[in-house]
Design goal:
The protein has 248 residues and is α+β, with helices and mostly antiparallel strands. 52% of the residues lie in helices and 15% in strands. The strands form two sheets. It has a four-stranded antiparallel sheet, with helices on both faces. Strands 5-6 form a two-stranded antiparallel sheet. Helix 2 (16-29) packs across helix 3.
């Protein structure tokens, strides 16, 4: 309630687009929607509760952002300190079907050559249960992340090309390369706005604790509970009969 009052004073509003943009950023940080959903599940949260929390956080940021100061030298210092994290290596995206024997792999390759759907066969045949559920998709990976034979094949293929059976310690892989990303090494200018946003977030986080404490200390909190409900025999005030309001 106090935050809402301050937002009204500052003429701040949060749109659905604002919230969705934040959620998309989180998906990127967690490696995609599936990674974010896993993190939410581990935290006992749902997407709905995340959106509600995000709306509050965006509102606080919009209120406090005018109090932040990010200088060009701050951006330069952050870039130099974190330059390595901004660079990304060459990456490929691939799907695979993993089976135990060469005979199984040859049969699957024959079906694929005859027009069978890769994702469907991956779900039906692959012993890699983690990727099979996603049609064999392994996402993007760089050098050194997969076993050598698998990696060498994936990086040497063209997009949409399907390999012959590739042997590894895990069995036989049929690989389909689906995408490719060149290595990147962004300049400070490329990352300037991203860094500015990071530094603003940091400053807002530092400001928000004292700001919230100050709001509470200055507010008049009025308990509108009916005195009759305050008897010792009354049930706990979580039944919905209790309402608190914060007045200016």
């Amino acid at each position: 309630k106090l935050i809402d009052q301050e937002a009204t004073k500052a003429n701040v509003s949060v749109t659905e687009q604002d919230v969705n943009a934040e959620i998309e950023t989180l998906k990127t940080q967690y490696g995609g929607e599936e990674g974010l959903n896993t993190a939410l599940s581990q935290s006992g949260m749902t997407m709905d509760s995340l959106k509600k929390n995000t709306e509050v956080q965006v509102k606080i940021r919009k209120i406090l952002e005018p109090q932040t100061t990010v200088k060009d030298e701050d951006i330069s210092a952050y870039y130099e300190a974190n330059k390595a994290t901004f660079a990304t290596p060459e990456q490929v995206r691939a799907s695979h079907i993993l089976v135990k024997t060469k005979e199984e792999a040859d049969d699957i390759k024959k079906q694929l050559d005859e027009g069978a759907d890769f994702a469907t066969l991956a779900k039906e045949k692959s012993t890699d249960t983690g990727s099979a559920a996603n049609g064999g998709d392994l996402g993007f990976f760089g050098e050194g992340e997969m076993v050598e034979a698998f990696e060498k094949a994936a990086f040497s293929m063209k997009n949409d090309e399907i390999s012959d059976p590739i042997k590894s310690d895990y069995g036989y892989h049929i690989i389909k390369r689906t995408d490719y990303k060149e290595a990147t090494n962004p300049t400070e200018e490329d990352k300037k706005e991203d860094i500015r946003n990071i530094l603003v977030e940091q400053q807002v986080g530092e400001l928000s604790t004292n700001w919230m404490s100050e709001l509470r200390s200055k507010a008049t909190i009025v308990n509108t509970l009916d005195p009759a409900d305050e008897s010792s025999d009354a049930p706990a005030a979580s039944t919905g009969d209790t309402e608190s309001s914060a007045k200016e």
